[in-house]
Design a protein that fits this description.
heterodimer, A: 249 residues, alpha/beta, Rossmann fold, nine-stranded mixed beta sheet, 6 helices, 13 strands, 27% helix, B: 315 residues, 2 domains, five-stranded parallel beta sheet, Electron transfer flavoprotein subunit beta (chain A), electron transport (chain A)
């Protein structure tokens, strides 16, 4: 079983991003970029499936500029076997990424695609579901446990009321939630080895799909800051403030 | 304008966030048709749904394939209905809504706008990005605008005495892609987290599941509050995942949010900073939670929280 893992290059988790000075977007010049943390969890899960003898090959794919090669090398260092860059300088939104990854999934004959549940930049939480729709495959989002057996995948999902287990016939799309696993760090020997693993570049323009942005960003700005309040000295003072000042008790 | 809003129901009980969904659709204006699907209970939920002012029609589809609210089975129905001239399709950004809507959008071949917090006009919406540290104003001029709605940003419309007509629509059939085979849903007599007027949340400072239960729950009982938790508390196994408040958990905005032993990581703040009044109890006076708390109390939570429970009970 071949597993495909789409990965996205985003501003590093620890960076506090700012709007551009003209408010037209997010300032990403000279910002440290990393793999989307949810995608790291997806890569880890795919690699564990291979280590368990369930998956035969793990292929990482990233759509975007040439700089995404760096993100793909991280996936290779974590244990992916091969990587594919679908290169374009167009600003890609979820639907466009889903269309491009669909082509790759079909060409590769992938039986399982594991995505991160959302990217921490645009927080869209769309690509996995859109990809499943376009492939006409089942989808199991927000996975906290994945078990592949007998041509099915059983996925425990984090839902509003607790947990839910779904069974999907393969091929299928899974999206990884926080508690699915703890991704490994790429070790130095593995980083060195990853440099020799195959990384193919395909041109998005040759895929014959419409990747034009469908949603236009008009402006990006900082939300109004919540003002800090006061420190109270005792429980009695707190209760009095909540009753008389805030009037919530 | 004509909106199709997809409401959720369990066993005939309408989701408490339905009023927020109606409110968001009302900002767009025009007709609002409310869709209810399920394997059972749809008719009872429809009776509640028809009472919301602003709802033009209630569309119902009850069929076995909607058990488990699987996106694979519901999306084809929504896509078929969307062909009837709807300009907008909306659902609450709940786990179910977030799971369903992108599948609908892709089948319609339209871009989607997630977690809107403001309707500027029929094509223009505001949504948080980067865990809520920034807001983006976006324009979506697709023929159908597919939008998920952050409930807390739209104060709920209360059900009134209107009686919108109920129309039954044909189901779209079992797609055979997925099946819900198990559920572990929390049983609680407390108010639901996203609908509660007061929330008491605990974090890593509680130290253990026993301490969490022994400290947070009595205060929640005293206040008739829902119980929440930080990601750290969930990851450490103090409580189960459905109680997590934050960017990747529940987004809440109660009248009173009491954060106990929670340092205030950005992803937690993203889930609760729109609460009306925030109280923080933490031993570390430098904890970031104090920067947004209306009332901060520095000290040992194991002493302060029981004291607070007693003070409120006797007040």
């Amino acid at each position: 079983m071949k597993v495909l893992v789409p990965v996205k290059r985003v501003a590093d988790y620890n960076i506090k991003v700012r709007p551009k000075s003209d408010g037209s977007g997010v300032e990403l010049a000279n910002v440290k970029m990393s793999m989307n943390p949810f995608d790291e969890i997806a890569v880890e899960e795919a690699v564990r499936l291979k280590e368990a003898g369930v998956a035969t090959e793990v292929v990482a794919v990233s759509c975007g500029s040439a700089a995404c090669q760096e993100t793909l090398r991280t996936a290779l260092a974590m244990g992916a076997d091969r990587a594919i860059l679908v290169e374009t300088d167009v600003e890609l939104q979820s639907l466009a990424v889903a269309k491009l990854v669909k082509v790759v999934a079909e060409k590769e004959g992938a039986q399982l695609v594991i995505c991160g549940k959302q990217a921490i930049d645009d927080d869209a939480n769309q690509t996995a579901q859109m990809l499943a729709a376009l492939l006409d495959w089942g989808q199991a989002t927000y996975a906290s446990k994945v078990v592949v057996a007998d041509g099915n995948v059983e996925v425990t999902r984090e839902v509003d009321g607790g947990l839910e287990t779904v069974r999907l016939a393969l091929p299928a799309v899974v999206s990884a939630d926080l508690r699915l696993n703890e991704p490994r760090y790429a070790t130095l020997p593995n980083i060195m080895k990853a440099k020799k693993k195959p990384l193919d570049t395909l041109k998005a323009a040759e895929f014959g799909v419409d990747v034009s942005p469908r949603v236009q960003t008009l402006s990006v700005y900082t939300p109004p800051e919540r003002k800090g309040g006061i420190k109270v000295g005792s429980v009695a003072e707190l209760v009095q403030k909540l009753k008389d000042e805030a009037r919530v008790l | 304008m004509k909106s199709l809003i997809i409401a959720e129901q369990t066993g005939g009980q309408l989701s408490p966030m339905t009023g927020n969904l109606v409110a968001a659709a009302s900002k767009i204006g025009g007709e609002i048709d409310l869709l209810l699907v399920g394997a059972s209970g749809v008719a009872a939920a429809a009776e509640s749904a028809r009472a919301f002012p602003g709802v033009t029609r209630v569309l119902t589809s009850e069929s076995a394939e909607y058990a488990g609210f699987t996106a694979e089975n519901i999306a084809p129905l929504v896509v078929r209905l969307a062909g009837n001239g709807y300009t907008h399709v909306l659902a609450i950004a709940s786990a179910a809504g977030k799971n369903l809507l992108p599948r609908v959008a892709a089948l319609l071949d339209v871009g989607m706008v997630s977690e809107i917090v403001e309707v500027v006009d029929v094509d223009t919406f505001v949504r948080p990005i980067y865990a809520g540290s920034l807001l983006a104003k976006v324009r979506c001029a697709e023929r159908v605008r597919v939008l998920s709605v952050r409930a807390t940003a739209f104060p709920a419309v209360a059900a009134g005495d209107s009686a919108a007509p109920i129309e039954v629509v044909a189901p779209s059939g079992e797609r055979g892609k997925s099946k819900v085979i198990g559920q572990q849903l929390a049983q609680s007599t407390r108010p639901e987290l996203t609908a509660a007027r007061i929330i008491v949340s605990g974090g890593r400072g509680l130290g253990s599941a026993e301490n969490f239960a022994g400290t947070i729950e009595p205060l929640a009982d005293t206040l008739n509050a829902a119980v929440g938790a930080s990601r750290a508390a969930v990851d450490s196994g103090y409580v189960s995942n459905e109680l997590q408040v934050g960017q990747t958990g529940k987004i809440v905005a109660p009248e009173l949010y009491v954060a106990v032993g929670i340092s205030g990581a950005i992803q937690h703040l993203a889930g609760m900073k729109d609460s009306k009044v925030i109280v923080a109890i933490n031993k570390d006076e430098e904890a970031p939670i104090f920067q947004i708390a209306d009332y901060g109390l520095v000290g040992d939570l194991f002493q302060l929280v029981p004291e607070l429970s007693r003070a409120i009970a006797s007040a």
